[in-house]
Design brief:
By secondary structure, the protein is mostly beta strands. The protein has one helix and 38 strands. It is 3% helix and 39% strand. Strands 21, 22, 23, 24, 25, 26, 27, 28, 29 and 30 form a ten-stranded mixed sheet that branches. The longest helix is centred in the first third of the chain and has 12 residues.
Length: 468
């Protein structure tokens, strides 16, 4: 691939092939001096390690080698030069051995990533050309030498914390943490955070304090850039502002630490919807469905029973314990109830009898759908992923709101929970832990003979299990 080369180049001969292996140095190093390679009757010498971060912002060119020019084969034409990096990417080079900073930056990021703390040894060679602009002929090719350089990028910390109107501008507060997924921030520079929308509907003004600045140091804060949707490092701007969105419950913040961009999205639904009914004597709304998407869909498992002879009836509440009209979800304000639930006079009814149900509730469309769980099984590599294996069927423990199996056959090769002898409803890892299971999650690897599954979120905000 050829990059930003003068027009009209006609290669008179094939490019010299690069015969040395590429090197990726994990620590900045300096090329030993002198390091000189032949260039016809001239030479090319290496320079010290180049840190693009150390250059002045206005600097457009950086010296990547020192050229002692060969004798030109035709004195009528002034020679000019190119440098080829990695055997494939060719760029213009001036007579002093300088190339455009933007070209070197683009090459480094494309081939090695954006980490400014790591220098990379790049195999290179220089070529001399002469010509009249219409026809150009290569007259000399240097030996292979190395350019050692690191890209330009900000120093990104592992975590940042919101400091602003939402927490009284308390620079010691670590409640609102902005992180990526824990990987190299130069490979994944996208950091996210969810914050509560102010109850009074006001704007949120803030800066992001790096972990190193918690406790009073404001110098490294992320602040507002001059352009909309941009931020700057080192507290070089004003406050970032989230303009209030009516009805917002949360704001999801997203920062790209390399591109210096940020955005926010309003989430208008609470994290849970609560079940209340005859199961617990209409007194304890502690079973709950969890928000599954930003469209207002809640999912989960609900145990419906009638220990007091009051009927298999219930409602949902947006706010636990709040019987107000705006909080209740019942037969009157749910427009459609399908599956194994049905409408009653006011309450919702479990049409398929006592038991555990998998529930999908959309509070935006006011629709409710339920499937009764007739059996819950273990399925995995150990039984050929047979979702209908009766020997691995679990028993519902109504007192402890959990499914139980003893003598489980699971192995570390992977397993999951399935319902109703099928894969439509299944549970696996959400984040690689038994304390957080999710629909269609990843395979579980823990082993044990006694397994308990707690699907109703009665004692935790997560669906979880234990393996002993």
């Amino acid at each position: 691939m050829t990059k930003k080369i003068f027009l009209g180049i006609a290669f008179a001969a094939s490019m010299a092939a690069c015969t040395e292996d590429f090197k990726d140095w994990s620590q900045p190093q300096v090329v030993p001096q002198p390091a000189t390679v032949s260039f016809a009757d001239g030479s090319v010498a290496t320079v010290s390690t180049i840190s693009l971060n150390a250059l002045d912002e206005a600097q457009e060119a950086v010296q990547v080698c020192q050229i002692t020019a060969p004798t030109a084969s035709n004195a009528a034409y002034a020679p000019f030069y190119t440098v080829t990096l990695g055997g494939t990417d060719t760029y213009n080079l001036d007579n002093e051995g300088r190339m455009n900073v933007s070209d070197l930056q683009s090459y480094l990021v494309a081939n090695y990533g954006s980490n400014p703390n790591v220098s990379h040894a790049i195999d290179a060679f220089v070529e001399m050309w002469i010509g009249d602009g219409a026809t150009n002929v290569k007259t000399a090719t240097s030996g292979v030498f190395q350019i050692v350089a690191s890209p330009k990028a900000p120093y990104i910390e592992a975590a940042y914390y919101l400091t602003g109107s939402i927490n009284g501008w308390d620079n010691t507060d670590m409640t609102y943490q902005l992180t990526n997924d824990g990987t190299d921030p130069y490979e994944n520079p996208t950091y996210t955070c969810r914050i509560n929308a102010p109850e009074d509907g006001s704007n949120v003004e803030f800066k992001m304090t790096p972990a190193s600045g918690i406790g009073g140091d404001w110098s490294g804060c992320l602040a507002a850039g001059e352009e909309e949707g941009k931020f700057v490092y080192n507290n070089a701007g004003g406050n970032l502002v989230i303009e209030a969105v009516e009805g917002a419950v949360f704001y999801d913040l997203t920062f790209n630490m390399i591109e210096l961009t940020w955005s926010y999205a309003a989430v208008k639904f609470d994290p849970f919807v609560y079940f209340i009914g005859a199961t617990d004597g209409w007194a304890t709304p502690d079973q709950k469905l969890a928000l599954a998407d930003e469209d207002g869909t809640y999912t989960g498992y609900i145990y419906v029973a009638d220990p007091n002879g009051w009927g298999l009836e219930f409602k949902f509440q947006k706010i636990a314990g709040d019987w107000g009209e705006n909080s209740q979800l019942n037969s009157n304000n749910l427009t459609e109830i399908t599956g194994d639930f049905e409408k009653g006079d006011d309450n919702i009814k479990a049409a398929a009898g006592e038991g555990v149900y998998y529930v999908t509730l959309n509070v935006a469309t006011n629709t409710l759908q339920a499937v009764k769980i007739t059996n819950m099984n273990l399925v995995g590599d150990f039984n050929g992923w047979n979702a209908a294996d009766d020997t691995q069927q679990m028993t519902w423990d109504a007192e402890n709101f959990c499914y139980v199996i003893t003598g489980a056959g699971v192995t570390a090769n992977g397993w999951k929970f399935t319902a109703n002898n099928a894969w439509d409803i299944n549970l696996g890892y959400a984040e690689g832990s038994l304390t957080d299971l999710a629909a269609n999650g990843a395979n579980i690897s823990e082993t044990g003979s006694t397994i308990k599954l707690y699907p109703t979120r009665k004692t935790s905000d997560k669906i979880y299990c234990t393996v002993e």
